Amino acid sequence: MPTILGQNQYGKAENRVVKITRDGDTHHIKDLNVSVALSGDMDDVHYSGSNANVLPTDTTKNTVYAFAKEYGIESAEQFGIHLARWFVNSQEPIQKARIRIEEYSWSRIATSDANSKFIGSDEVNHSFVREGMETRVTQITYDGKNWEVISGLKDLVVMNSTNSEFWGYVKDKYTTLKEAYDRILATQVSARWRFAWSDDEQRMPNWEKSYAETRKHMLQAFAETYSLSLQQTLYQMGSRIINHRSEIDEVRFSLPNKHHFLVDLEPFGLKNDNEVYFAADRPYGLIEATVLRDGVDARIPVDMTNL
Q1: Active-site residue numbers?
Q2: Which of 10, 79, 258, 264 is the most exposed place for a label (fewest CB within 10 A)?
Q3: 286 forms bridges with which residues in the sheet?
Q4: In contact, 305 and 190? CB cutoff 8 Å
Q5: Is residue 285 within 8 Å of 230, Cβ to Cβ?
Q6: pTM for the structure as a whole
Q7: Helix and strand tally (H, E) in the chain?
């Protein structure tokens, strides 16, 4: 039975581009997931395998990152218009371009009280929390006499666009990672904390206030730590919770390092001055640890952070 080619398109899907705009000490983030689909005179590549009319999908990916530098990202709509116009107008075989963009919103992390040394400095302007992803969790265990309450959160995505380094690590013949003295630090926090309250004779914590305050201290510690490693930041987050919330004895963290790699724009004649990043989703470093009140034994199971 004879066949003919129907509707078709091709392109590069889910190009994760993060653009940092530095307005003095204040940083602005545009975080996009860009998918490009092109169609036009593409019969030959399907029938005979001829690539004469094919713009490589790798080129469409490169164009996304280069345009983030050349044009900036004023809005998802304007950025998509730049891309679509370029693909159709610059390549004769391409007659239609479809650009789909997801934009991920970030809000600034509020720092400490008015007496904090960080207020008025760049610390308040480079720390962000991803909106709309966080889930609150809790586990209550009761044996008829004693209570154990372990609460926490998952999928709390945070980012520092500067004030993070990573260098001085062990190197062997397989090491290719370059030392970084100004990098993005981002993670998706999964945290569990165990309350000291265990029986009805004790005063029960104010659960709502405790959650809000614990989350606040966690975020402030993330924002205010000049980080030389994600492990250091983790410990500061846990220590701040323990030191400020007397009702909590133990905090366990699981922090995947959400890597952001500078895109090499030199092949396109562009300089990437810590502006345009590729946001990788895997593989990722995974940092896990427990921070305890002195004299208290760890009791949160390792697998709790997967709940």
Answers
A1: 12, 57, 259
A2: 264
A3: 256
A4: yes
A5: yes
A6: 0.89
A7: 5, 12
